[in-house]
Amino acid sequence: MRPLFAFLLSLLVLSGCGYHLTGKAGDMPGGVESLSIPVFTNVTLKPDIESSVTTAFVNEFLTTVSIAEDAPFIMEGAITSYNIAPVSFSRSDVVQEYRLTVVMDLRIQRRATGEVVWQASGVADFEDFTVNTASPSETRDREEAALVKLARDTARLIKERMLVRF
Description:
The chain is of the alpha/beta class and 166 residues long. It contains three helices and six strands. The longest helix is centred in the last third of the chain and has 28 residues, at 136-163. It starts with a helix and ends with a helix.
């Protein structure tokens, strides 16, 4: 009798608490079920970052909508800022860690009418990465890895905000 009571109580609690998996609750704004995500525009001075950011968004939204080139909705993104600033130094004032900050504008619109169904401006995120003073190429690789992680995290955050209408 006791296990049955515990099972029923847990069902009652779980069904009423609003528990859901992250990124799986809610619907996309405007009833978006299929989305086209062309390569984001890069208006910064940092070259070749748009493909990493766009790929992260495509991979993230694939879990929620179908991605098709001729979809009725299109997500447009513009990377408006790419900034690297030192955040920690050694005792001899050598940079030990940088902070990469990326800012972007995003918009989803209905392709046929141009109606904007969702948009966010000035979406900013940052990621820190360490410096290898003995190897500039390794530091550059760490910067690229930081961009990939930042883009993946930002895409996930944006999708979750859309799904909960935040």
